[in-house]
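Hello K.,

You asked for the raw outputs rather than the summary table, so here they are, unedited. I folded two proteins back to back in the same session to keep the settings identical. This is the first:
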Amino acid sequence: MKSMNCPLCKHHGKPFCTEKFFICGNCSGIYKNRKNYISTDAEINRYKEHNNNVNDVRYQKFVSPITDYVLKKFTPDKSGLDFGSGTAPVISKVLQDNGYAVNQFDPFFSNKTELLNEKYDYIVSCEVIEHFHNPDAEFELLHKMLNPDGALICMTHLYDKNTDFKNWYYKNDPTHVFIYHRQTIKYIADYYGFRNMKINSRLVVLMS
């Protein structure tokens, strides 16, 4: 496949660095060639390999940019969703231990689709958005689920001009199919109607 339109903004992309990836000339997203996607079973097995533990202090520290943001910006009476909660929903664990009510949704490990019809004051998504096969539909859904003055709080590793993409560990994960640039986040904020965005290293916050 010599060309493939961007799965986020549908604009034309061109090959980037290796035959496995394209880069979008519109939103600056970097996306994997679909012929290099792994099977659903292989993807699930890959996630099971992570072997995370919600009581692991190191794991709790890793997600602390998200949990600290929620604890600072939202009170326990606000509703939350852990989107892509995985095999070990550590964010939910930390917040629930602080008296917060958080639901968990994961298409493979907690596929409670009824939760996607509800509204939330905040949605957390840690190391998830780079796995989106259809980011256009996913971000439309996430924005739709937020209450006014809500926030989508994500963690991912953004690409920038200083990234040595060819040798970058992040693109080597076979389940990572869409890599974001700061400009990509701006596109998402503008296109889906988020009123503001904040980026602090791996932490990305989009406010409704």
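The second followed immediately with the same parameters:
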Amino acid sequence: MTEPEFLRFQSVVRRVALAVAATVPTERMYSLSLGSQQGNAHLHWHLAALPPGVPYDRQQFHAVMAENGVLPVDDASQRELAQRVRRHR
């Protein structure tokens, strides 16, 4: 990405993070950039809202590692959450 493209993209990531934080209880927002030039070269961001009250030893990398548990969320709940987040853009 060129620098202007990157900055524009980061602006979108920030707006989405703020909308998520305005929608669900959030003590901290984690933003992870992942991608690879090998295989299917791509770039994407993960935003993970840390809810209030998570003990310190379960924050940071521990909080976003699938092996430490994943919240079961059905498709209908995800659609409803996405609609709520969109209202905060």
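The chain has three helices and two strands.

Happy to rerun anything if the numbers look odd on your end.

Regards,
P.
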